[in-house]
């Protein structure tokens, strides 16, 4: 399985119904933002999911850094 970023192309927050559909799919949701979702899945599953969602696209997510809000401070800060 690979990592992919699904992103809503409309420039607004993604519709809640679409986010629920992504979460119910076979893709493992790793992180979410207002207009994108990082998932782990098979490419063919993501291609089919995005084809069924109006206004969405995807890209391979292997080199994407995501901010992580953990509430912990990092060394040196």
Question: Could you characterize what this model shows?
Answer:
With 77 residues, the chain is an alpha+beta fold. It has one domain (2-60): Alpha-Beta Plaits (2-Layer Sandwich), CATH 3.30.70. The chain has helices spanning 16-24, 43-52; strands spanning 2-8, 28-32, 36-41, 56-60. It has a 4-stranded antiparallel sheet, with helices on one face. Strand 2 and strand 3 (36-41) form a beta hairpin. The termini are far apart. The relative contact order is 0.30. Residues 73-77 have low confidence and may be disordered.
CATH class: Alpha Beta
Strand count: 4
Q: How would you classify the quaternary structure?
A: single chain
- Terminal Cα span: 36 Å
Beta content comes to 25-35%
What overall geometry do the principal axes of the alpha carbons give?
globular
* Uncertain parts: 73-77
What's the architecture, going by CATH? 2-Layer Sandwich
| Biggest beta sheet summary | 4 strands, antiparallel
Helix content: 10-25%
Overall pLDDT level: 85
Total domain count: 1
SSE string: EHEEHE
Structural class: alpha+beta
- Summed up, the helix count is 2
The strand order across the widest sheet is: 2-3-1-4
Report the C-alpha radius of gyration, rounded.
Answer: 14 Å
């Amino acid at each position: 399985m690979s990592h992919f970023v699904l992103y809503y192309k409309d420039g607004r927050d993604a519709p809640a119904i679409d986010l629920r559909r992504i979460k119910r799919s076979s893709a493992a949701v790793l992180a979410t933002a207002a207009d994108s979702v990082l998932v782990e899945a098979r490419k063919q599953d993501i291609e089919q999911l995005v084809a069924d969602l109006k206004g969405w696209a995807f890209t391979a997510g292997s080199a994407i850094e995501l901010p992580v809000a953990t509430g912990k401070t990092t060394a040196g800060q």
